[in-house]
UniProtKB/TrEMBL annotation:
It comes from Mycolicibacterium rhodesiae (strain NBB3). It holds the Pfam family zf-CGNR. Transmembrane segments: none annotated. Residues 139-182 form the Zinc finger CGNR domain. PANTHER family: BLL6575 PROTEIN (PTHR35525:SF3). InterPro entries: ABATE (IPR010852), ABATE_dom_sf (IPR023286), Znf_CGNR (IPR021005). This is Conserved protein containing a Zn-ribbon-like motif, possibly RNA-binding.
Length: 186
């Protein structure tokens, strides 16, 4: 699907942001600490974890901030303002690093000792900044299915992605279109 428009860590972080936002679009998908741990482990987040309600609440607040960035993606100035605010609030300070499990050089933007939301927010804001810097903000989309509010990052070469990965929306829309065409031809 992806043509590596961005570095591996940028793409992974953009996907993680989408999953985080979508975890709150159709009922709460991050209701507790085990669900948060599963999400974090699934995307390889490292560093400090407090494993308490305050940490979960702070990740929920980050999710809301990120959703607002997707909501204003059509207005570059508003998106830039929100990304800059998130970079500032997280005190992002980039440095290059690599790990045994991820030998490619990549950026960390906060100390492993900083709170989880701060590390996540800094990395997600930087990934969004990369998108803005190369004029690709239009890759932030809301699912085109009429019954879905999920977000997506369109990493297709020609920016033709329209449907999210959360609710099988693309398949449902294609089946509905097929059935409609077939009904007209009968």
């Amino acid at each position: 699907m992806s043509q590596m428009l961005f570095s591996h860590d940028t793409e992974l972080t953009l996907r993680a942001a989408c999953v985080l936002i979508n975890s709150g679009t159709d009922g709460e998908q991050l209701p507790d600490l085990p669900a948060l741990d599963a999400y974090l482990d699934g995307f390889g987040w490292t560093g400090r974890r407090d494993h308490d309600g305050a940490e979960l609440d702070s990740v929920h607040r980050l999710r809301t901030r990120l959703a607002k960035i997707w909501a204003v993606a059509g207005d570059e100035e508003k998106a830039v303002d929100q990304v800059n605010a998130l970079l500032s609030d997280t005190k992002a300070a980039p440095w290059l690093t690599r790990h045994k499990e991820m030998p490619e050089w990549h950026l960390h933007l906060a100390s492993v000792h900083d709170p989880l939301w701060q590390r996540m927010g800094a990395e997600m804001a930087m990934a969004l900044a990369d998108l803005i810097r190369i004029g690709e903000l239009r890759r932030l989309k809301v699912c085109a299915a009429s019954d879905c509010d999920a977000v997506l990052i369109d990493l297709s070469r020609n920016r033709s992605g329209k449907f999210c990965d959360t609710g099988n929306c693309g398949n449902r829309q294609h089946v509905a279109a097929y059935r409609e065409r077939r009904a007209k031809s009968d």
